[in-house]
Structure formats: structure tokens, C-alpha cells
Amino acid sequence: MILVQMYRYLRNYVTISITGGFGERFLNLCNKEKIYLWNTAYINGGIITNVFCNDFKRLKAIRKKSGVNIKIIKKTGLSF
């Protein structure tokens, strides 16, 4: 478990909030594009999840297709 946490910390990741639009479609499109999301939770009508920074850049097209809004809540990693 500690190795997984260290790996994620070294790769840099962000915690994001997804609101509006079609959240389930967003998650399905991420799965189709092989974008790894973890610690995903449905809170107050929105979705909170973690994603690697490299994959975060790929979310723009998926965001447009599903009509959601994405907000960065927290940045975590060695370079931050």
C-alpha cells in the first residue's frame, strides 16, 4: 500500500470536482480512454476523484462531450 502511495506521489496527481452535465457519461468516457481515476466518490450532487496530471490534460475533450465542469481541489506530488 505504501508503494502505491509513493508511486502516485512521484507521478503527481490532482483531486478534482466534477459537477453539472452527465457525470456518469464522463466516468464511462474516462474508462474508454483508459484514464485511471481513484478514490471516486459522489458527494453533494457532484463527483470527487483523483487523476494523474498527465491524464488531466486529456480530460478536455471528455469534458466537452459530457458537458461537465471540472475544478481542481488539491494538487499533490513531488513537483508541487
3D structure, described in words:
The protein is α+β, with helices and mostly antiparallel strands and 80 residues long. Helices cover 40% and strands 36% of the residues. The chain contains 4 helices and 4 strands, in the order H-E-H-E-E-H-H-E. The chain has helices spanning 2-11, 23-32, 53-56, 59-66; strands at residues 13-19, 37-43, 46-52, 69-76. It has a 4-stranded antiparallel β-sheet with strand order 2-3-1-4. The longest helix has 10 residues, at 2-11.
Distance separating the two termini = 22 Å
- β content, as a range? 35-45%
Rg over CA atoms: 12 Å
Order of helices and strands: HEHEEHHE
Structural class: alpha+beta
Largest sheet: 4 strands, antiparallel
Number of strands: 4
Overall body shape = globular
How would you write the strand order of the largest sheet?
A: 2-3-1-4
- Uncertain regions: pLDDT < 50 for 5+ in a row? none
Helix content: 40-55%
Total helices: the number is 4
Average pLDDT: 94
Any chance you could write out the topology, listing elements then pairs?
Blueprint: H1 2-11, E1 13-19, H2 23-32, E2 37-43, E3 46-52, H3 53-56, H4 59-66, E4 69-76
Antiparallel strand pairs: 1-3, 1-4, 2-3
Write a brief caption for the model.
The chain is an alpha+beta fold and 80 residues long.
Name its key features:
80 residues, 36% strand, alpha+beta, four-stranded antiparallel sheet
